Amino acid sequence: MTEFELRRWLNRAFYADKKAKALDMLVQQCRERATGLVRATEGNDKGRSSTSKNGTENALIQLAEMEDKAEKLSAEAVKITAEIWEAIIGLHDDDLEAVLINRYILFQTVEQTAESMGYDPRTVMRKIKKAIEKLSPNVIECHPIDVL
Fold it and tell me: Which DSSP letter does residue 68 get?
């Protein structure tokens, strides 16, 4: 596995988390709209309420489906993070593990990682490169289907 492919594999948690958060925000927005529809139809007893109730029901059904998708996406993000965590702790090098955890699980930039660990950013880059070189055989061994 190349260094590029391994970095892409490590970044999966970032993108899964980003997607899950975006869907959560969309669900929240839809929930607010559906709540508004429910309030609007509650006081409407003047004959034409069946159409608006159908629209409200449809909106609530779609909201429930979106909430289910958001929950599944969040669970998938947790699963991906756990896979990456297992690969990282397989390094058995506390310093390299800490660098990769900050970078690929806590989603810190190189500069943030350097600051939190008391390193120069160039040192963090070297440690990431060293960790990735050391990590590559572990990832192929543990996750051959995901990688290939």
Answer: H
